[in-house]
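Action item from last week, closing it out:
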Amino acid sequence: MRKLIIMGLMAASVLPVAAPANAQSRAEIRRDRQDLREERRELRDAQRYGDRRDIREERRDVREARRELREDRADRRQWRRNDWRGYRTQNRALYSRGHWRAPFRYRSFQPGFSIGVNYYTPRYYIADPYRYRLPAAHSGLRWIRHYDDVLLVDVRRGRVVDVIRNLYW
């Protein structure tokens, strides 16, 4: 019986858990893209065969479909960005500061700042950002630990792209 329970726990920890909000948001974005394509198609038909009033209405519909798609994309980005907050409260030990020290003093950075190479050497890279539920860093970008803060840095130019303050306790 003990082996069965252990196997069940191992299987549960390996299976990915999909948040319903994430799946719903993806479906909404897909639906909004389809709506936008359909509205553009109707606008083309109105421009070919319709009168001024039809064209005006179809343009308004296309603008509204674009706005809805932008809003859903922004909501999804915001959800991804704040995904780590709830996880952090449940896994406090993972986010504990530990004995981490840098050879330089703390400085508060903001997006757009240009920083020196010694701030983002491989020694300060966060190797597995998903472990902390941080959004994936695209090519040329790296998550860097700077005391309790986490910086998303463009390592080619040395620019700070994003800052998450007080990620660590």
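Closing note: The beta strands are 141-146, 149-154, 159-164.
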